[in-house]
Amino acid sequence: MPYSDGIETIDSLIQEHTGFFDHRLRELVAECAITLANTNSKGLEPFKQSVAVLARTGDRGFALSWLPLTMEITGAPWETLWNWLNYSPTVQGVLTPEAMFSWAQFYISACRYNQNTGNLIIKQSKDIFAGVDETKQLMLLESCLELSLVSWPAAMEFFGAIPMATRYLPGSAIKDWYDEGFHFARRDTRLGEAYFKSGAIWPQCSFEVFGSLITRGKRLLALDIELAIVFFNTVPSLVQKLGARISKRLLPEWSRWIEGLYPVDATVALEYARASGRVLPLIKGKGLASWSGAVLRLAGVSKKAALAFAASGDRIFDELNIEEFQDWFAWVWAEHCGQEDRLAENVALQTRESRKQLVSFRRGIDLDDVVKSLTLYAVAFFNREIIIKSSALLPREVIGRGSGSSTGDGKRVYLPRFISVYPTAGENLSIYKSLLIHEVAHLIGGTYAIEPQMLADTAGEFNLSTEYAEISEYHLYFSLFENYSLILHLFELIEDARVKKLLLMSYPGLERELLSRDSVDEEANGGSLLSNAAGAVAAATLGDGQITDAGTGYFEQTFAVFWQSVVAGEACVADSLHLATRWYLYIGEHSQDIKAIRDFGRLTARSGLSPILLAVSRSVERKCSEMGYGSGKYYGQAVIKALPGELDKEPYIEYLTGLIADFVQEENDSCRAMADYDEWDCNQGGYKPDWVRVREFTLRPSSAAFVRETLEHHYGLVSSLKRYFALLRPDRFMRFRRQEDGDQVDLDAMVEAWVDNKRGVMVTGGFYTRIDKRIRDVAVAFLIDLSNSTDQVLDSGKTILDVEKESVIIMAEALEVLGDKYAIYGFNSEGRDRVNFYVVKEFDEVHGDVTKQRFGGFKSSGQTRLGAAVRHAISKLESIEASVRLLILLSDGRPYDFDYCAEPENTDFKSWLQRDELLYAQEDTRMAISEAKMKLITPFCITVDRKGKEYLEKIMGSVGYIVIDNIELLPVKLPELYKKLTV
After folding, report:
1. Which residues span the domain enclosing 759?
2. Could you tell me where the beta strands, DSSP code E, fall in 848-910?
């Protein structure tokens, strides 16, 4: 804005609000405007808007504080100034004039430290101080300033904890809490940050409990500062996941275990404390002593084994319950106690053998073993095919209650990976059926069919304020409430009752399966209001479904009206959402602090709605249909950016997006088979079980133009090869005379013998003829590297992949004449979960128009995870009966994939960094080649990588490969090599 225009605009604004601007305010506004015009004229427009806000609210006291501070900030960097002008007026009516100066100082200091930190402060201050007593504001802001001089991370954690501190702590306790944290921050900035972060547990527990935890943390601090940091960082998540009652009992015992481990081995104690955040929510109070005792026992004999065991704790308890764990550990101890390496290998679960032993102690059933029967069960009952996946694939942040939970995303049902509740397989299978029926009820009942307009109408009816342009998902709707978890669980409770009733009205025989899993969470601590809400639902759903007495309570009365519409078949998902919102608002009106009410357990057959999963699934489906069904990594970022709300910032979203995208592609592409293969880890000296997933595709016929052009261009070579290979084909029959045994009597031999006998010559025998059927018994699989590097353009204008394809096309023509069995495959990879294996021609297919058209589908992309591709090709060759079986690899470089490398070891990260990153891939491929040889398959590699000799001799052996310097000669060289390998 030009100088003159800016000043005139400010003057007109003052004239418009003459009643507000006294002489002093006029001077301050004019002074600020002139300074801005001279130093940063871009600031005039936001300054004018801010002054207009001040004038409309009429708070002269705030204006007299704000304008001098603005004058000081006019010389700040543009982003700092812009944020101040736009956001600082929002604290009007929140911060006192006395607190304003310290607040501005805090903001400016933060911007000097880190601009993003300053942005957070000025944007969040209104909400942070909205409920803070005015008499405490100055003290709290001065504390923030003081703490920032020692540790900015600690200061920001303290700043964020201010609302909870003022709500839950007595006045004197706030100062004591701060002083303790300030002392910690001076000692170590990470310790101060972790200490103030632990204040997040106040809504779940009393200050008395918090005080005892602080005491425990200080005891650990006396032992080791790292232990104390891990302790304070872990406590909030444990309290949130375990609940107040279990935490009060469990956490002191847990800290005593840490103290007990420390004298045995400090490093083990630290790893145990870190791992506890993942393990304790899985085992809760029942298994703490068993797991911790096992760590202590191992630490006494092997530091290496104890560290590996602590780190793998969550994976162990994902597979086993406490009783199964005890049996497994007793076996490991008895078998390997005296062998440190074997002991560490088995408890680390990093080899095929160790995982096989672990799962052998499971008493339940695997989802993989029953998924087909469950799918057929759903088809038989509901006449629809249900896509069933394991809930263990989902991030814990999404499934919430661990891999033992079930949920859905509107298209798929996610069930536990295994169930071992009962001793018999039949009883555990009944749980699977119950969970499946429950999820199908939500699919059929319309839970996932909620429309954005339904969400918007409900929000509008209750005057829920929203910053979203469109409330398109459950996640956004639930985000409108202070207690996201509470509104979600109220909706689950009501909606679950509705869909189950609908299903029972259509399938009354399912009553036992639907209701058998219903139970109230014993750890529910939401208070009498939540108990009443749950009771109102239980009275209807666990009885005969007919409410004869609505009762006098609010929940009973409102649910009775809702239930009548359900029984009449008139209620839909929007009605459940409407009632859940009413109940939430009622609880808010009758609760001292609705934020303090944690989720009250799952009352819905141990499963529930996952709004985040549903939002991601819908976004992926939309983006896939827009961009085509390709790799999830191809459009992953596009999906993430399109997610509603702040979901794109969550660290697990990228993984979840890729997972759902892969599911979508599996359901829409030509993937005809999937197989999991072990992968050799040279560092562990064993196989990683089921580590790599190979997805097999039959390439869709596209165009035979490339084949036609190749045959025309190499017409002379193809003709010569056909004649040459025709000579290699043996006569189909050969007659052998004068045999001791055979198929027919050799009359000529008998006549000659009779003559010899008459002449007195000794007869030697051999009076039979034998017909020998001679047929070449050869099977060959061509495996072509399709990685990105094969897209390199050669001097001829062709790519490496073009030449590879030409060579195989020419060989196919020759083999058709020769009569050898052959198959043609291609491969590339995108990480261990996606090794793509493409079929051009199978052994039993005729080489005709269809297979020739498939060559047009070969494209260069991805990486080269060769070991898995070789293993899959081996599985193909194993099924072919032939005296000679060949696997010919055509590649342009060494095996590589972005995660085709060793994992860092907790104990020696530095040495891991110094390792050869390519060694892991090389050794896995070498092992895959060895597996082929053990199965009497002869592998041979043809490469155009001039450095191939450096690694291929180790992988293939000295005679198992050839390096072709001139790729253009490959069409000529390949037939020559084939002859040497088979004749």
Report:
1. 735-773
2. 884-891
Examine the domain organization and report whether 740 and 842 are in the same domain: no
SS (H, E, C) 634-653: HHHHHHHHCCCCCHHHCCCH
Please tell me whether residues 826 and 927 are part of one structural domain.
Answer: yes
Give this prediction's pTM. 0.60
Look at residues 68, 93, 118 and tell me which one is the last residue of a structural domain. 93
Residue 959 zone, left/alpha/beta (φ > 0; ψ -120 to 50; rest): alpha
Q: Residue 904 is part of a domain; what is its CATH number?
A: 3.40.50
- Domain assignment present for residue 699? The answer is no
- Is 709 inside any structural domain? yes
Q: Are residues 742 and 857 in the same domain?
A: no
What CA–CA distances, in Å, run from 644 to 199, 220, 253, 614, 639? 29, 42, 42, 11, 10
In this structure, are 905 and 919 located in the same domain? yes
Distance (Å, whole) CA 225 – CA 587: 43
Residue pLDDT, tens place only, 52-85: 877 777 777 888 888 888 888 888 888 888 888 8
Do 769 and 916 lie in one domain? The reply is no
Six-digit token pair at 861?
């992309």
Question: For the chain, how many structural domains are there in total?
Answer: 3
Residue 693 β-bridge partners:
676
Nearest Cα residue to 664 out of 336, 956, 412: 412
What CA–CA distance (Å, rounded) separates 850 from 841? Answer: 9
Contact at 8 Å (CB) between 555 and 532?
A: yes
Same domain, 52 and 18: yes
Residue 263, C-beta contacts closer than 8 angstroms, at least 6 positions apart: none
Q: What pLDDT, in 10s, does the model give residues 121-142?
A: 888 888 888 888 888 888 999 9
pLDDT above 90 (res 780): yes
The C-alpha atoms of residue 679 and residue 350 are separated, in whole angstroms, by: 11
Which of 754-764 are b and which e, b meaning 16 or more Cβ less than 10 Å from the residue's Cβ? eeeeeeeeeee
Amino acid at 158: F
